[in-house]
Amino acid sequence: MGPKRWWAAWPSWAGSAALVWSALYAAGAALAAATGPAFGYAPLGGTARGAAAQWASAALYGGAAALAYGMRRWPGRVWPGWAAWGVVALCLTSGFGFLLSLTRVLAFLSRDQPPMDWAAWANQGVAVAGAALWLGAGLAYRRRGRGVCAHCGGARAAAGARSTRAGLVAAAALVPYAVMKTAWALGWTAGYVGEGRPGLDPRYASDLAIRLYAHGVDATAVLAVVGMGLALALTRPWGAGPVRAALLALGWAGAAALAPFGVFLAVVGALVWAGLVDVGLGDHAPWVVAVAYGGFSVYGVALGRATGAYRARTRRPCARC
User: Fold this and answer.
1) What residues contact residue 185 under an 8 Å CB cut-off, 6+ apart?
2) What are the two backbone dihedrals, phi and then psi, of residue 205, each rounded to the nearest 5 degrees?
3) Is the separation of the CB atoms in 289 and 262 below 8 Å?
4) Does the pLDDT value for residue 68 go beyond 80?
5) Are 259 and 300 contacting, i.e. CB atoms less than 8 angstroms apart?
6) Cα separations in angstroms, 125 against 91, 193, 257, 270, 297
7) Across 38-52, 82-96, 187-201, 234-248, least confident range
8) If you average pLDDT over every residue of the chain, what do you get?
9) Cα 246 from chain centroid?
10) Can you tell me the distance from the alpha carbon of 33 to that of 35, in angstroms, rounded to the nearest whole number?
11) How far apart are CA 26 and CA 8, in angstroms?
12) 284 forms bridges with which residues in the sheet?
């Protein structure tokens, strides 16, 4: 079987690949916990370190391996398919730093980035690969249980409408953030109760970011507008060659990075709003984190749905249906 045919047959091997990957990743975490070196094993993307986090990773991914084995033994049941999405989320949180590592090369965002831990970065990349394997395993298992084509899901008819709705929701979710950061750059202080100008810390921002901000342009607001453009592009009837491939790559990467990040910010914002935690944002109104930053979670989820629907709408007819 050639590489192209092997790749096209992914529903037949995704479950086995997820099983092997989970077992190896759990074994690596256990080995790291037993021998001492920190190779970046952490279920929350590096926010927790040490032997306890490594043992926790070993236990969680060992459970994922058991789930993958059970999916082969219990075809057609509903709960393993839902549990597979939980493993995808676990892998994405473990690989969160890898997904956002592109921001390290954006020098205009910050000049004082912390030093790169290459071992942890590579480990997080392996976790992202695991998320892709588990996504394939979960899709194949769920589609077989529903009796539809495991390759395409047999759901092409309504893909256009779903893509349009999800794309519009994703674009709208970033509007509060872009408006707030632009207003701050223009001199307004809504949501900011501290001293000085909000939205930019000169100790960390680069010279380019400072110059842009002085002229009313916030670099992160520009990135938000780019993200809105990506979401809206997924609603258009494009489907040829490199345009489709680029939109799919950007859409999946953006969804995987921003959905968990936005959920985290939304939860933190809600806890700050309720007065239960203090994360050093006392000079910001609670709604800033809960509403504007929490919009990233809505954007990530909606972008993922828009990307999936765009893929279904623009793919070639499935020869296996």
Assistant:
1) 199, 200, 213, 216, 217, 218, 221
2) -75, 150
3) no
4) yes
5) yes
6) 10, 39, 12, 30, 21
7) 38-52
8) 81
9) 17
10) 6
11) 28
12) 192
Task: Report the C-alpha gap between 144 and 137 in whole angstroms.
Answer: 11
Within 8 A by CB and 6+ apart from 153, the residues are 139, 143, 312
Q: Which of 5, 13, 1 is nearest to 150 (CA)?
A: 13
* Residue found under tokens 């933190």: 268
- Locate 51 and state its tokens: 């032997």
User: Which of 118-132, 147-161, 238-252 shows the lowest per-residue confidence on average (mean pLDDT)?
Assistant: 147-161
**Lowest-confidence range among 7-11, 154-158, 181-185, 312-316?**
154-158
Identify which of 293, 301, 310, 309 has the alpha carbon closest to the alpha carbon of residue 254: 301
How much is the CA Rg of the chain, to the nearest whole Å? 21
Of 88, 223, 247, 262, nearest to 163 by C-alpha is 247
Torsion of Cα atoms, 161 then 163 then 164 then 166, to 10°: 120
* Other Cβ atoms closer than 10 A to 219: 20
Residue 301 Cα to chain centre, angstroms: 9
Total number of residues shown for the chain: 321
Q: What's at 298, amino acid-wise?
A: V
Per-residue confidence (pLDDT) for residue 17, from 0 to 100: 96
- Cβ count within 10 A of residue 211: 12
